[in-house]
């Protein structure tokens, strides 16, 4: 009897040892990796968005460089861009009708596919104007090692959750030749 | 030892390692995050400052005069510190403290730049003594003052056998030449343009005939409703003709602090020939440079620094040569060099112009930043960061503000950042992009809109800031009235969102294939550039041309 008990304890011990010696360090390492990758993605996104904001244009070159920089982290990403285009015309009409009033400006949005279409149609460049708003958000679409391990051990991460996310946005400040 | 014990020992070793590693990564991530957040704050404050400058210049009729400009720039610098102070307040820095960490703000203008930084207020003995006896004196000798240093022009000296001249460049192709050449004193200024031909009184530019335009009109705030007045813009100031003034005798007026100043000189009403004069005078200027002064042979190797030594080559952050002064491969006045006109972006002149501007800014700025160490209280050694090439490109082609923020501690390291924000929506410069085209359907368009080609209802070219809202404060009622000088609305495919704009590097080449548009565009470009304020001009003499 006691030998059976010993065997159980031994098996339990081996499982526990395997978890403690392999799974724990692996999870800890992969979590750190995700942190660092998130930081890289955040830096890349911020730099990309700020570049667009200060130069006043989105170029294919820049966009590809941004994509490549993200890809170098070893994950696949879903990049969503949005331009909130400032339309001053309604405000202008209000002021022209009543000289003491500043009319309200209107924004409408262009999303990733529209932005890419417009860039392609314009020779790889979409120029923005001062006052427009540009934002980009990035999420990973693959499952990172850390997510896989978590799924395996305690199934917290569902299919829709992501481990790496970054976003940044702001006003377009440039109004110049955009060179 | 049982395997369980092994595991426990392993965990005892691994757990602290993992914790330390995680804390270290966390600290690094925090530092980076802080750096990014500081970058954003600096960008935003810089934008606020240049926006303040833009608003002030658009709403002021005297913004191109030096004292007004200094006032506007000081206001912009104040906005910078207010804005950055607000942004950093949560981190415990207020604007006064932050001044210690901002070694310089650089405002690049049309033909030179201002540096806003601390300096020692050096006074002559007499003034110093007078001030010391005055209990209400604002300044004392030798104190540290933060303010604008004198304007530095984008100038370069050239020395060659028989030639010793200083050329001042600008953001476009306007230059000023002073000095002596071949025994003759020179003091001249003008636009460098190729391909202008004259036959009799006709002027052609790139094959397009430039003719006087019809009288220009724009809206001006009036008591109840905006009214259109005929106007003329001379040396940066707009003069309007009010036919109803003085019981129908009429008078010219201009705006000063929101008030109409009547009784101005009597200018001629009728066709506007600014563009015609622009191209004609440019042709004469070219002739003087080449034939009268004989400066055609100047090359980049003749450029000299302040000690009279040849200027060394410009290098980028990695030490690669970005502009070769020494080799002298660049002819400065390279009129019609291999089919490239001097005003085109790829011409030798343009390359040289950009190199000189960069050299002047880099040199003066690095001195200002190095000097800052004498005023800074901390132990941080301030130095000029290497600016990225794309930032230089923006600085050299636009009116811009460069701000520096150095010496703040961000965890593991010390922050050393800069921000460049450019903005041409002001009275400083007319760039090739600043000309919009109006059509009869009440919209304005960018000149490079694809749908504009072949349209038959094109009206005229307009300087872009005329589409901006202006405000006039009525002193008696204390109410601000807003108006738009030009009432056209922004086109939806080329201005509001720019989905139908052709990306081009060289607008001159683009216009060559659209001659109908080219005529309107070149006329407007010439008109607006010629109407700009120029320091070189004798204002009274220039005004008399239009009386």
Terminal CA distance of chain A reads 83 Å
Alpha-beta classification of chain A: alpha+beta
Order of strands across the widest beta sheet of chain A? 3-2-5-6
Structural class of chain B: alpha+beta
Beta-strand percent range of chain A: 15-25%
Quick one: how many beta strands of chain A?
6
Fraction in helix of chain B: 25-40%
Report on the biggest sheet of chain B: 6 strands, antiparallel
> What count of domains describes the coordinates of chain A?
1
**Which stretches of chain A of 5+ consecutive residues score pLDDT under 50?**
none
The whole-angstrom Rg of chain A is 25 Å
How many H/I helical runs of chain B? 12
Average per-residue pLDDT of chain B, rounded, comes to 85
Overall 3D form of chain A: elongated
The largest sheet of chain A, given as strand count, sense and whether it forms a barrel, is: 4 strands, antiparallel
Biggest interface and its residues per chain?
Answer: A-B, 57 and 66 residues
- What's the tally of helices of chain A? 5
């Amino acid at each position: 009897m006691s030998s059976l008990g010993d065997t159980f304890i031994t098996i339990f011990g081996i499982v526990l040892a395997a978890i403690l010696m392999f799974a724990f360090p692996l999870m800890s390492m992969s979590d750190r990796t995700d942190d660092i990758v998130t930081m890289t993605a955040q830096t890349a996104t911020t730099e990309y968005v700020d570049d667009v904001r200060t130069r006043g244009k989105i170029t294919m070159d820049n966009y590809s460089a941004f994509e490549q920089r993200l890809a170098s982290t070893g994950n696949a990403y879903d990049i969503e861009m949005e331009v909130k285009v400032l339309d001053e015309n309604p405000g202008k009409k209000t002021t022209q009708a009543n000289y003491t009033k500043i009319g309200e400006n209107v924004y409408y949005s262009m999303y990733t596919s529209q932005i890419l279409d417009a860039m392609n149609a314009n020779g790889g460049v979409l120029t923005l104007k001062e006052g427009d708003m540009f934002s980009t958000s990035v999420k990973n679409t693959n499952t990172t090692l850390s997510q896989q391990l978590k799924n395996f051990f305690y199934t917290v991460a569902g299919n829709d959750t992501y481990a790496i996310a970054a976003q940044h946005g702001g006003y377009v400040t440039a109004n110049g030749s955009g060179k | 030892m049982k395997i369980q014990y092994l595991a426990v020992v392993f965990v005892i070793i691994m757990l602290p390692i993992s914790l330390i590693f995680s804390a270290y990564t966390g600290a690094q991530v925090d530092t980076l995050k802080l750096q990014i957040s500081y970058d954003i704050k600096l960008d935003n404050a810089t934008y606020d400052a240049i926006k303040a400058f833009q608003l002030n210049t658009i709403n002021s009729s005297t913004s191109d005069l030096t004292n007004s400009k200094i006032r506007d720039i000081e206001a912009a610098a104040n906005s910078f510190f207010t804005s950055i102070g607000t942004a950093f307040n949560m981190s415990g820095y207020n604007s006064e403290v932050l001044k210690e960490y901002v070694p310089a703000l650089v405002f690049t203008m049309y033909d030179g730049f201002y540096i806003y930084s601390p300096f020692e207020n050096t006074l002559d003995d007499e003034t110093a003594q007078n001030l010391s006896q005055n209990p209400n004196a604002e300044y004392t000798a030798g104190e540290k003052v933060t303010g604008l240093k004198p304007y530095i022009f984008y100038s370069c000296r050239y020395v060659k056998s028989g030639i010793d001249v200083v050329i001042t460049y600008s953001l476009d192709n306007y230059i000023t030449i002073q000095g002596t050449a071949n025994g003759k004193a020179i003091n001249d200024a003008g636009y460098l343009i190729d391909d202008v031909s004259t036959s009799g009184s006709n002027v052609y530019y790139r094959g397009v005939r430039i003719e006087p335009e019809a009288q220009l009109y724009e809206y001006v705030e009036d008591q109840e409703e905006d009214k259109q007045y005929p106007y003329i813009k001379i040396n940066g100031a707009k003069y309007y003709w009010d036919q109803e003034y003085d019981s129908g005798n009429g008078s010219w007026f201009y705006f000063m602090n929101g008030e109409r100043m009547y009784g101005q000189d009597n200018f001629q009403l009728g066709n506007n020939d600014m563009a015609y004069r622009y191209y004609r005078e440019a042709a004469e200027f070219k002739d003087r440079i080449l034939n009268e002064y004989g400066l055609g042979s100047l090359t980049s190797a003749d450029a000299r620094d302040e000690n009279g030594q040849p200027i060394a080559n410009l290098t980028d952050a990695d030490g690669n040569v970005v502009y070769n002064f020494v080799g002298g491969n660049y002819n400065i006045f390279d009129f019609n060099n291999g089919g490239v006109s001097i005003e085109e972006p790829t011409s030798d002149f343009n390359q040289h112009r950009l190199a000189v501007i960069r050299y002047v800014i880099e040199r003066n700025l690095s001195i200002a930043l190095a000097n800052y160490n004498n005023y800074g209280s901390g132990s941080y050694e301030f130095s000029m960061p290497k600016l990225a090439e794309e930032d230089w490109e923006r600085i050299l082609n636009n009116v811009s503000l460069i701000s520096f923020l150095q010496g703040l501690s961000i965890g593991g390291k010390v922050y050393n950042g800069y921000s460049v924000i450019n903005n041409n929506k002001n009275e400083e410069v007319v760039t090739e992009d600043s000309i919009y085209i109006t059509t009869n359907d009440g919209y304005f368009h960018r000149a490079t809109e694809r749908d504009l080609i072949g349209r038959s209802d094109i009206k005229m070219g307009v300087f872009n800031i005329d589409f901006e809202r202006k405000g006039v404060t009525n002193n008696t009622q204390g109410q601000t009235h807003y108006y738009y000088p030009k009432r056209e609305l922004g086109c939806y495919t080329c201005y509001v969102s720019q989905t139908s704009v052709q990306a081009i590097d060289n607008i001159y080449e683009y216009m060559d294939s659209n001659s109908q548009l080219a005529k309107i565009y070149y006329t407007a470009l010439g008109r607006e550039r010629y109407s700009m304020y120029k320091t070189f001009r004798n204002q009274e003499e220039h005004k008399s041309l239009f009386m």
